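INTERNAL AUDIT FORM
Audit reference: QA-55
Scope: verify that the stored structure record matches its stored sequence.
Auditor: D.O.
Record contents follow.
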Amino acid sequence: MKLQILVSSLNQEVKSLAEKMNLQADTILINQCNENRYEEWTQDGHQIRCYHLAERGVGLSRNNALLRADADLCLFSDEDIVYDDGAVERIIEGFEQHPEADMLLFNVRVQESRFTYWNSFYKRVRWYNCGRYPAYSFALRTAKMHEKNLTYSLLFGGGAKYANGEDSLFIHDCLKAGLKVYSIPVEIGEEQPRPSTWFFGFDRKFFHDRGVLYHVLYGKLAAVMGFRFLLKNKSNMNSESCPEGLTFDEAKKALLSGIRDAKGGL
């Protein structure tokens, strides 16, 4: 099997970026910038195809890469990921050992403040536990994605109407389409620290957008899952992380308003 890496970047010097990321497979790199042009080159024997596009939106960026993907497997990535030596071989080996899997979620090391998941054993991912995995952990069978016409939402994520949640929605759509998704305890790289492009603290918009997301993900269980999220993050809602000084009740009110708005249509 062959693997292709699908990189989403913003205003990058792409050849330096490709070297820094330690790319070890053919790559499609989408660079959101202020011009439209194409270039390609070879790095360590691998073809790098770069599309400079004058547009914004992480979902749009990932779709542009996914629709051009033509290898057996594809791996989503971001500009701040650096791959371990041998990462590509470990990913391919994962799919060879697990032919039942349409999508595998790998471990990527992150700084403590960004920690949301860690796979300790091989297990099936379901609708109720799919909301904590980032795109850079996703590896997929490309033909399956194209067969099911799966793409990223353009309403959620950096550069979109609602701040985040695009990765959770993508897994949700994969599961809804009947794909078999598994997490696997295999490390492939590390995320380099950088300022967030979308999280500016626990403000009203954050909780409102979270309510919209939970309605799309969980339907009638949106309020229950939202309250669970609030309780889980209550200790993190301090003066530093809450620029608007929201109380717990105010955060809950904002989240519920997002759920109500989503019921009326996005």
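Auditor finding: record pair retrieved intact. The first strand starts at residue 3 and ends at 10.
Action required: none
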